[in-house]
Design goal:
- The complex is a heterodimer of chains A (312) and B (189).
- Chain A is built from twelve helices and nine strands.
- Chain A has 312 residues and is α/β, with parallel strands linked by helices.
- Chain A has a five-stranded parallel sheet. Chain A has a four-stranded parallel sheet with strand order 2-1-3-4, sandwiched between helices.
- Chain A starts with 17 loop residues before the first helix and ends in a 7-residue tail after the last helix.
- Chain B is built from four helices and eight strands.
- The relative contact order of chain B is 0.22.
- With 189 residues, chain B is of the alpha/beta class.
- In chain B, the strands form two sheets. In chain B, strands 3-2-4-5-6 form a five-stranded parallel sheet. Chain B has a three-stranded antiparallel sheet with strand order 1-8-7.
- In chain B, helix 2 packs across helix 3.
- The longest helix of chain B has 18 residues.
- In chain B, helix 3 links the parallel strand 2 and strand 3.
- The radius of gyration of chain B is 16 Å and the shape is globular.
- The chains are: A alpha/beta (312), B alpha/beta (189).
- The interface between A and B is medium-sized, with 25 and 25 residues.
């Protein structure tokens, strides 16, 4: 049985099938072991070039993609917003076309505008991986979240997953919702009314304006980062009040199932959306997420440009 | 296995090379040869996925009964190390590599079902080196069918046969739900 993955790009979870997602997760489970070897490198993508083009600050995701590429022996080049020519006024398209002219196999793009990865993918010959586009999607985060949940819970089918926080501005929430619902989980979202999209139920989730009912008997709790800018925009009164009503503390976590796991895409605002004792507690699998991040990105790189994978 | 079965549909069996008893006696002889040339306490068996894994398990049982020592047994998937995957063909399934103990100071017996071009063995050698530095690596195969493309030879061979390049040697194993046997196939016209 060969894994089937007939995509040239990874732009979002929305366009993936349940089988596509499971293909990535199965391969990630296998590739996890490479990161525990004495020599953490296999020659699979030798001679392939991966460009990380990050037009927004990121440490975790960029490093994770870089390590994933290097563990598969690809040559990885990092370009961040501060050193790219966009500082000199170059457009995204010009930057992408110039990079593409150097014949990379993959361009990993993070960009503040929704649709940026899709736009670039239509212009370049390289495979494009969306590493976050505005408030749209962050597919590899959702895949690593699913991989982490599957490791702890065996499967996603039938699980209740509660996503807490700023749903409106979160590409992680959007990608998570697509992935989790495709894999058969019941998804609940909870946050202040100002941070919940009006018709979020149309994505197949249950919406709550208070976290307590959303947490009841949950198997998995995903806490989203609260961006400080939301306070300046007047969407929340202040972070202290947010923490009091919406932050995940041990008392609230007690409403979830006794074996519920806690996840966070990072970077965390300790004491705002999550209390330190929960973040560092026994039920936190936040560092597992980071570990799976590398394996999932290795799997995606392998499926897009690995042996036998290239399509015309 | 499903891949093998699919392949078999397009192939016509020419002759049986080994039956179930033939495989058993070949493995008996190979186990004896391995033990004659090695200190059982330093042995480390590594089966190459998929067929080699079951042959390595059978070898481990034989060594246990004659040398009264359970030698460590590892599993190697060389997909990530292959150099012969042709673009456009279905993507090969990647399985895990599991080596249960340190390779240092060990005499590794690499076990595969069929030795053909030598490219699988080359990949396995490169992968093994990434896990450590064994004292030696020896190669044991059930069938050597010739047509090497690399300077690789087997130290222990169950059956050596002459084949045409376009023929196929298929090893059937009961662990894969088949009847033990080795057959030579040619492509259907």
């Amino acid at each position: 049985m060969s894994p089937e993955f007939k995509h040239r790009h990874l732009l979002g979870i929305e366009s993936l099938s349940r089988e596509d997602i499971l293909t990535v997760l199965d391969l990630a489970d296998t590739l996890l072991e490479i990161s525990e070897r004495p020599i953490k490198r296999v020659p699979t993508l030798r001679g392939k070039t991966v460009i990380n083009l990050f037009m927004e600050p990121s440490t975790r995701t960029r490093t994770s993609f870089e390590i994933a590429g290097k563990r598969l022996s690809a040559d990885v080049i990092n370009i961040s917003e501060s050193i790219s020519s966009t500082k000199k006024g170059e457009t995204l398209l010009d930057t992408a076309m110039n990079l593409n002219a150097m014949n990379p196999n993959v361009i990993v793009l993070r960009h503040p505008s929704a649709g940026a990865a899709h736009f670039v993918s239509e212009q370049v010959s390289a495979s494009v991986i969306n590493a976050g586009d505005g408030m749209h999607e962050h597919p590899t985060q959702a895949l690593l979240d699913c991989a982490t949940i599957r490791k702890h819970k065996g499967q996603l089918e039938g699980l209740t997953v509660s996503i807490l926080g700023d749903i409106s501005h979160s590409r992680v929430a959007r990608s998570d919702i697509h992935a989790l619902t495709k894999l058969g989980a019941h998804v609940r979202v909870a946050g202040p009314m100002t941070l919940l999209p009006a018709e979020i139920e149309s994505m197949g989730v249950e919406a709550f304006h208070r976290v307590e009912p959303a947490l009841k008997d949950a198997d998995v709790v995903i806490v989203l980062r609260l961006q400080k800018e939301r306070q300046q925009a007047g969407l929340i009164p202040n972070t202290r009040e947010y923490s009091r009503y919406f932050g995940l503390n041990s008392k609230r976590l007690a409403l979830a199932k006794p074996d519920a796991i806690v996840m966070h895409p990072g970077p965390m605002n300790r004491g705002v959306e999550i209390e330190p004792d929960v973040a560092d507690g026994l039920r936190s699998v936040i560092l597992d997420q980071v570990n799976f991040g590398v394996a999932v990105r290795m799997a995606v790189l392998y499926l897009l440009v690995g042996p036998g994978g290239e399509t015309e | 296995m499903s891949e093998k079965r699919k392949k078999n549909k397009e192939l016509v069996e020419e002759r049986v090379l080994l039956d179930a008893a033939g495989i058993e006696s070949a493995l008996d002889r190979l186990a004896g040869e391995i033990l004659r040339r090695n200190d059982s306490r330093k042995l480390f068996l590594v089966g190459i996925r998929t067929g080699g894994v079951y042959l390595a398990q059978r070898m481990q049982e034989r060594i246990l009964s004659s040398a009264r020592y359970e030698v460590p047994l590892g599993v190697m998937d060389i997909t990530l190390y292959r150099d012969d995957i042709v673009e456009g063909l279905p993507r090969p399934d990647v399985g895990p590599t599991e080596l249960p103990s340190e390779l240092e100071g060990k005499n590794v017996i690499l076990i595969d079902d069929v030795l053909f071009t030598g490219r699988t063995v080359r990949s396995a050698l490169v992968e093994l080196m990434d896990f450590g530095r064994p004292e030696s690596i020896q190669l044991c195969v059930l069938v050597d069918r010739g047509h090497r493309e690399l300077p690789i030879h087997a130290d222990f061979v169950g059956l050596k046969i002459e084949t045409q390049r376009d023929q196929s040697v298929v090893v059937f194993l009961k662990e894969l739900g088949e009847k033990d046997g080795v057959s030579l196939f040619r492509r259907a016209r």
